[in-house]
Design brief:
globular; 12% strand; 55% helix; EC 2.7.1.71; Rossmann fold; alpha/beta; 162 residues
Length: 162
């Protein structure tokens, strides 16, 4: 069964995913990277050329492909924007929500042009998006993990809970 990491952009899903991947000797599937490699376009260009709904469908297809495999999955922050993806994630008992203070996330992602839903947004705009997504993360997560701590501590808490 897969281990799935969800949470807002910049929270450290891929970083923690790499630590879990090493610990369990399982491949890491970063859904954003998988989509970029499959479509051969960076995420901002996918959004621009095809729209967000198309990207969310690609996320859903990737999640469907990998959810039943013995892998660690790092999702994109907006994967919960798709009801179909949320339904899949609700059924996985190893879905972990990495939570982090929005101010910390804002400092990490504010100038990252590879994040179309964050680039150029104010702290208040990101707070609004975070608040909107928070309910969905809570709804699908097996366990909430405080990601304000060092990455090794976060990974250890996940390992101890499995």
């Amino acid at each position: 069964m897969s281990i799935v990491l969800v949470g807002f952009m910049g929270v450290g899903k891929t970083t923690i995913g790499n630590l879990l991947s090493e610990h369990y000797d399982k491949p890491l599937v970063d859904i954003d990277t998988y989509i970029v490699e499959t479509i051969q376009l960076p995420i901002p260009q996918i959004f621009e050329k095809y729209g967000e709904a198309y990207f969310r469908d690609l996320e859903y297809q990737a999640l469907q492909k990998w959810i039943d495999k013995d892998v660690v999955i790092s999702t994109g922050g907006g994967i919960i924007e798709s009801e179909l993806s949320k339904d899949i994630l609700k059924g996985n008992v190893n879905t972990f929500w990495l939570k982090c203070d929005i101010e910390i996330l804002f400092n990490r992602i504010n100038h990252d042009h590879n994040r179309p839903n964050a680039s150029g947004r104010s702290l208040n705009e990101l707070k609004a998006l975070y608040s909107k997504r928070e309910l969905s993360y809570n709804e699908i997560a097996f366990k909430h993990i405080d990601a304000n701590r060092p990455k090794e501590v976060v990974a250890s808490e996940i390992i101890e809970s499995l």
